[in-house]
Amino acid sequence: MRIFVTGIGIVSPLGIGVETTFDGLLAGRRGIGALNLFDPDGCRSELAAEVPGLHIPEVATSSDIDLEGWSRTDAMAVLAAREALAGARVGEELPVDLICGGTTAGMFETEALLAEMHRDPQARRPLSKMLSHPLSATVDRLQEAVRRFEQARTICSACSSGANALLLAATWLRAGRSQRVLAGGADGLCRLTYTGFSSLGALSPEPCQPFDRDRRGLTLGEGAAFLVVETEAAAAARGAMPICELRGWAVGAEAHHITNPEPTGEKAAAVMGAALRRAGLAPGDIDYVNAHGTATPLNDRMEAAALRRCFGDRLASLPVSSSKGQIGHTLGAAGAIEAAICALVVERGVMPPTAGLETVDPACALDHVRTARAGSVAAAMSDSFGFGGSDAVLVLTRPDAFAPPAASSPRRVWVTGAGTVGPFGVRGEHADYVAPGSAPPDGPRPFEAKDHLDLGRARRIDRAGRMVTVAMEAAFGRDAPTDTTQTGAIVGAAFGAVDHCSAFVHRVYEKGARFASPAAFPNLLPSSPVAHASIYHRFQGPVFSSADLGATAEGAIVTAAELIAGGEAEVMFAGGVEEASPITEAVLGPLCSNPQAEARGEGTVVLRLAASTPDPAGVELVWSHAWRGDVDLGGAPAPSGPARVFVAHDDDAVAAALVGSAWAEVPRAAAAAQAGGHEAAGGFAAAAAYSLLRGGDLVEALVLGLAPDRGYAFVLRVSP
Amino acid sequence: MADDVKLKLKEIIIAELNLEGKSPDEIDDAAPLFGEGLGLDSLDALQLAMAIEENFGVQVPEGDEARPIFASVNALAEHIQKQA
After folding, report:
1. How far apart are CA A667 and CA A675, in angstroms?
2. Integer Cα distance of A218 and A524 in angstroms
């Protein structure tokens, strides 16, 4: 089955729109200049690649939209999404799903407030300005200002987020879970990332020079891109012309270091190879590579080494360019913008140059495109490498160039373990979280990392990352993994490391950017806890985070199951992590989530999902569903034996959601009170469901995760 | 004076690099901090340079110039006293 790209939208520092951006790229124009959005005083650079002419009120066209909760990131995403849908001629009558990658969302708009909230606890009030802060806010704005989406997912794998959004879309289409997805990424500039990269010594004082001998680091940029991707059948049914084919994709973690790439390029090359295999292509079939090419000394050397490993002799005559000399490093948007550029290269037969490259670094000897070069491109590769070592590679091809890829049917998905860290301490399989009563029978057990981890190896990992690492270990259960090359993880937090972001930006405001903490910065990204855990456990499969308010853990579990079903991983650890957080408790929770009665504690939960089970009768994830707007559980398979519905909170919304489904009269169990009253409680409910199924108390369970205007559901069943 | 600087440096190293369970007297004044010794890396060097500037008002150069300065607690203390 082929997957077609039928629409593209780009907002970049070269301008708003596909044509402005691509024309600028071909002309060698550089969208890099003095940073205007904020004062870079004390940073190692005063430059940035800002999107010109972006006016939020002009983007949010309807007057009943409250602009208080909008960010530049949101505005860029809305513009790119509208252009992609219009280009694809997809109207309101056609169903569309949405996947957005990003790292900072409304950080720029909220960081002054966050700094104030750190200084003065009285400032911690649910102000509507904070609505743009959650990573999932961007998909909410898209839903509000662009159109209705059937389901929406927000993911983060740092600088490969946009590429992983497209990878997940491909997985959905190939498995028949969706007919059409709007997938991409958006990320606006902000003080947090600017001062953070500056503190790491990664910012170049001059416009960046990818692959140059004298390169001194990256130039930060901002932007957004979305691609409409659909099945060949869906495109044909409406007479849509393909721009190109999304043919290959792969994701893998380096399990090496939280900021530095693995220097030999071995893992990055393996991911490139996996993307080629998924595409059914050989290295010789690729005609152009759009490199990650950030212009940091370490990245470019590693990437050249990885390309040599993957392409061998072919590399001498394989055109390569990095777009970052023109649009900067757009972080969570980069993978999507650069995939869009590859789609245009394939469609138009012309390759953009690497601007800023003057004297090639001998360690980066490649066939560099120095000025725009015409040439037939049947297949192009786009590389994206993220902080924490999340590598993602996409392959885009001319629709008629290669035979259709082999079809495959989705694989079965099993739950083979669960681990939690919460008020009951660290637990493997257990059912305590749905028992009556409110206090743990043997008293609360605060989490002490030193009881569970090698603190020498874990010294860079913050509390959230440590809880995730330990919960995974608890979920190893009977068989600790020996081969982790195909093991990955998706663990999200509703609002990320908001209190740590608040402390970081407060320090920058109070003491100046010179004193931004290089060690703290990598822990502020939404994907940081799961990335740290992947390094500790050496997981080398797909590793990223997700965010969806109070249904984050359930969403992560559903996403992980989709990746296993699609053959992207053999084992996935999936769930949520919530730290004790004064800002979440006082500001973001009341503003964005369902009001919660309990005192908010901390906790983390992961389920271990796998493509096979060691048990003769295992716990199978037989059905899952994700939605935006009104819930319809009509498709949920009816229970046939002892069954229960598992939720975070058993409230009116749950009862309403179950009406009309085969599960309406089934007894329910709620986990929030005993899980710690935080946003990951739905994950604890899933862990309890698994435990009762494994113990033989039940044969079926429906896990239902609800948050405002969205939800997830899945059915677990004891299966032979 | 020199001993005060060294003790403060060791406290900074332990706090900033999160060397939980280590005490200042476990860090040898002359032992290498990076690679073998304490096993620190480039990210630690950035954090230490920032913390040294914050605590002593002394800048630590970057790149090749920084290498001999980060060699040991002794070398760091010497740099700080020279610049102060």
Report:
1. 19
2. 19
According to DSSP, the β-strands at A288-290 and A15-16 are unpaired
Q: Which of A335, A281, A347 is nearest to A310 (CA)?
A: A281
The catalytic position among A43, A100, A159, A310 is: A159
Q: Is A629 in a helix, a strand, or coil?
A: coil
Of A118, A133, A329, A500, catalytic:
A329
Q: Is B47's Cβ below 8 Å from some Cβ in A? A: yes
Interchain CB distance below 8 Å, A450 and B50: no
- Which residues does A257 contact at the CB level (< 8 Å), separation at least 6? A389, A535, B41, B43
What pLDDT sits at residue A97? 98
Q: Tell me which residue range forms the domain holding B58.
A: 2-83
Report the residue count for chain A: 720
Q: Which CATH architecture has domain A3-397?
A: 3-Layer(aba) Sandwich (3.40)
Active-site residue, from A118, A133, A256, A292: A292
Q: How far apart are alpha carbons A541 and A531 in whole angstroms? A: 11
Query: Measured between alpha carbons, how far is A686 from A295 in angstroms, rounded to an integer?
Result: 44
pLDDT in tens, A502-548: 999 999 999 999 999 999 999 999 999 999 999 999 999 999 999 99
pLDDT averaged over every residue in chain A? 95
Query: Helices in A349-390 by DSSP H: which ranges?
Result: none
Return left, alpha or beta for B63; rule: phi > 0 is left, psi -120 to 50 is alpha, else beta.
left
Name the CATH code of domain A414-496+547-719 (choices 3.40.50.1460, 3.10.20.70, 3.40.47.10, 3.90.950.20): 3.40.47.10
Number of domains in chain B: 1
Chain A residue with Cα closest to B52: A515
Q: How do residues A132-177 score in pLDDT, each as one tens digit?
A: 999 999 999 999 999 999 999 999 999 999 999 999 999 999 999 9
Q: Within 13 Å, how many C-alpha atoms sit on residue A456's CB side?
A: 4
> Does this model's pTM top 0.95?
yes
In chain A, CATH 3.40.47.10 sits at: 3-397, 414-496+547-719
- Known catalytic membership, residue A537: no
Segment among A73-77, A588-592, B45-49 with least mean pLDDT: A588-592
Name A86's Cβ contacts closer than 8 Å, sequence gap at least 6. Answer: A7, A9
CATH of the domain at B24: 1.10.1200.10
A342 catalytic? Reply is: no
Q: Is the ipTM of this complex over 0.90?
A: yes
Which residue of chain B comes nearest to A257, CA vs CA?
Answer: B43
Q: Looking at the partner chain, which of A200, A450, A455 has a beta carbon nearest the beta carbon of B46?
A: A200
Q: CA-based angle A526:A527:A533, to the nearest 5?
A: 130
Give the DSSP letter of residue A157. B
- Which residues does chain A have within 8 Å of residue B46's beta carbon, measured at their own beta carbons? 199-201, 518-519
Contact A518 B21 (CB under 8 A): no
| Closest listed residue to residue A193, CA positions, set A247, A130, A259, A141 | A259
